[in-house]
Structures are given as C-alpha cells and as structure tokens.
Write a structure and sequence with these properties.
By secondary structure, the protein is of the alpha+beta class. Helix content is about 25%, strand content about 30%.
Length: about 240
C-alpha cells in the first residue's frame, strides 16, 4: 500500500501525528518543553486553532501536559485515557474538509431559576448568560446548542461574535477546563429545537447535556441536540 494512504489527511491530524510520533521516538523526554503553538503554526502552515486542537487531544490521551502561560511539556507515556473529549465543533468540521456555519438565535442575560442557579453556583434569580446557536455542516443543521454560562467565569461572553468563533473555543480560552460531566440520551426534540434543526417533532435525536468546571467553579451547562440521522458519538481508548 502506498505510504501516502497511511498518512493523516486533515491539518490537525498531521500536527498530532508528527508530535505523537516524535514523542514515541523519545525526541522529547518526559518533562521536556515541546515546540510552542507559534512554532507549530509556522512549521505546518496551519491556524492556531488547528494546532490547539492537536495539543488538546494529545493532552487528553496523556502524551503531553499543558501549563497555561508556560507551554506544553512531554508527559510520561504509561498513562491511559478513556474519556470523552471536549472538541470544538468548528475544528471538527474543518478537519473533515467541510464548511462550518453558525446561526446565532439568542445571546442575552437572564435571571437564573433555582435549579439552574444551583448547578452553576449562582444565587437564585442572579444573572446568567444564555445563548442558542445552530451549527451547520455544508449547509445542513447538525447541532442545536442551548447554553447557559456563569458570568463570573466569562464576563465578556455577551460581546463575542459567535458567528466567527464557537462558545466552546472561547470558553476554553478564558476558563481552562478542569472537569466535565455528561449525560447522553436518545430523545425527541422540543418544538423549538425541531424548528431550528428543520426536523419533525418525532424525529430521533442524540441529546448531550454537558456541565464543565474550571478550577472548581461551574462554567457552563450546555444542551447539545443532534439529529440522529446526521450525527454519531464516538469514543476512544488508547494505552
């Protein structure tokens, strides 16, 4: 088989493959400082978002350790990973060579009801940021993102243009992830979700509800609704 058929095709996968291969060969011993994001951007001619995704996935698999404001370091390779990765949808779609578009339907401050306030560690009736965004891949709606954000963790959230960047990408940059909790179920969409996704009320959907933390503080709760015919959830276990 020609060697090119075994090589990763997407830009982020090329960066990840190179770093993983060189780590395995021992180019960077445990604890050694890795190339900076700027160095990797220049070397591969890709965006900083692409490099950031490659490094995030290597960190989740235990190959590197990232220290905010310092850099990325080679980690011990005896660790194992069995996790769901927080992935930026824009980067995921871009890696497939497809076009990502975001329709912003709502971005505003609201008053938090009791249960939401409790889960985000806010006072009941306190201010919470709320956004509803539909993500499209090559024109087809693949996710309705209904998200609440703790204002103390991302005070500038309402001023971000989410047609140009995703909430996931922005929140990871201002409130580094330390913990995530998931619930996943097959469910019918709400009337609003069905309308935004262009599907029927009885069409099956995969619904992911995710709560993330940063340094012990709740950052966001997001309900991510995907038409079942357009989405698959994948996992990975690697020693």
């Amino acid at each position: 088989m020609p060697a090119d058929l075994n090589r990763p095709a997407s830009p982020y996968a090329k960066v990840k493959h190179y770093l993983k291969q060189e780590l395995t060969r021992g180019r960077w011993p445990p604890g050694a400082l890795m190339p900076s994001e700027a160095d990797l951007v220049a070397r591969f001619g890709v965006s900083r978002m692409t490099v950031n995704r490659a490094l995030r996935e290597l960190a989740s698999e235990g190959f590197v350790e990232r220290v905010q404001g310092v850099g990325t370091f080679a980690a011990q390779l005896h660790r194992i990973s069995s996790t769901l990765t927080i992935r930026d949808l824009h980067e995921e779609i871009e890696a497939r060579g497809h076009r990502h578009e975001a329709e912003v339907h709502l971005v505003r401050a609201e008053r938090a009801p009791a249960e939401l306030a409790r889960r985000l560690d806010l006072p009941e009736g306190g201010e919470v940021f709320h956004s509803i965004i539909v993500h499209r891949e090559n024109g087809a709606p693949i996710q309705c993102e209904d998200r609440y954000v703790n204002p103390s963790c991302a005070p500038d959230y309402l001023g971000v243009d989410f047609s140009q960047t995703t909430p996931t990408h922005y929140l990871l940059s201002v409130a580094p992830l330390s913990e995530a909790q998931y619930s996943i179920e097959a469910s019918a969409p709400t009337a609003q979700e069905a309308r935004l996704l262009g599907i029927g009320r009885s069409d099956p959907c995969l619904v992911v509800v995710r709560r993330t933390m940063s340094r012990g503080r709740p950052v966001t709760i997001a309900r991510l609704v995907h038409p079942g015919s357009r989405y698959a959830l994948e996992g990975r276990f690697q020693p």
